[in-house]
Specification:
Belongs to the CpoB family. It is found in: Periplasm. Keywords: Cell cycle, Cell division, Coiled coil, Periplasm, Signal, TPR repeat. There is one protein chain. By secondary structure, the chain is mainly alpha-helical. It folds into 2 domains: about 35-110; about 130-250, Serine Threonine Protein Phosphatase 5, Tetratricopeptide repeat (Alpha Horseshoe). It is built from 11 helices and no strands. About 20% of the residues are buried. Helix 5 (about 130-140) runs antiparallel to helix 6 (about 145-160), helix 7 runs antiparallel to helix 8 and helix 9 packs antiparallel against helix 10 (about 220-235). The N and C termini lie far apart (about 120 Å). The radius of gyration is 43 Å and the shape is rod-shaped.
């Protein structure tokens, strides 16, 4: 082989090995071509950008904290107003109960003795419809204040319309009337009927409160406590639950 031919072969082999070699990374190439001052300048720019981003994030965080504080303030204000409303409801509830008791005592003193003839006249009419019979019994309480007369009306209603949607209400009113007359055992029977048999009745929370109060009155504190706790658990937002909480604290 001639010298020139041998040299050409060496150059060819060298060139092909360079073609097969992996290319250097751009950053490495750039880094190798940068001076120390240029590299420091790049790092300073990176740090500056990071600081700007952190400052912006901190500003957004501060704004979010301000908004959360404002929302918390509004929530606390609304909670305070709601508690005042509930407190007023509890006061009205107790006031109504007290007034009903007072009116009953006054009416009992003013009512004439009932003779057999008048008792017959006050007998429950069987000619009334379900709604009419219920409205008549309620009117004896709310309008006429004739509590003694309302008791046989509701008892007759229970017998005459055993499948009525007003059955839990009738039991509740009978419990109320007999509780006012200090007939605690009879009252508890009616309140317990509402509690145990009419889970969907809107009278159930109040019946649970009344039953628990009577149980506490007759010395059955353990059962009263359990009933109050169930009332608070099942109906936490009701006035009856708030009153149960107060009475539970006294057991």
């Amino acid at each position: 082989m001639k010298p020139n031919t041998f040299l050409a072969a060496i150059i060819l082999v060298s060139g092909s090995s360079q073609l097969w070699a992996a290319p250097a990374a751009v950053s490495d190439a750039a880094g190798s071509n940068q001076t120390i001052e240029q590299r420091l300048s790049v790092l300073e720019n990176l740090m500056r950008n990071r600081n700007l981003i952190q400052a912006e994030l901190q500003t957004q965080l501060d704004q979010l904290q301000d908004e959360v504080s404002q929302i918390r303030g509004v929530t606390e204000e609304q909670s305070y107003k709601l508690e005042k409303v509930l407190q007023r409801q509890r006061e009205l509830y107790q006031e109504i109960e007290t007034r009903v008791t007072q009116v009953y005592e006054q009416s009992k003193q003013l009512q004439p003795a009932v003779t057999p003839d008048s008792a017959t006249a006050q007998a429950v009419s069987t000619d009334l419809s379900e709604n009419e019979a219920y409205d008549r019994a309620v009117a004896l309480i709310m309008k006429d204040k004739r509590y003694d007369a309302a008791i046989p009306e509701f008892e007759g209603f229970l017998k005459q319309f055993p499948n009525s949607v007003y059955i839990p209400n009738a039991h509740y009113w009978l419990g109320q009337l007999q509780s006012i007359k200090n007939q605690d055992n009879q009252a508890m029977v009616h309140f317990r009927t509402v509690v145990d048999q009419f889970a969907d009745s809107n009278k159930r929370p109040d019946a649970m409160l009344k039953l628990g109060t009577l149980l506490q009155k007759v010395g059955q504190s353990a059962e009263a406590k359990a009933l109050f706790e169930n009332l608070i658990k099942e109906y936490p937002s009701t006035t009856a639950a708030k009153l149960a909480t107060e009475r539970l604290s006294k057991i």
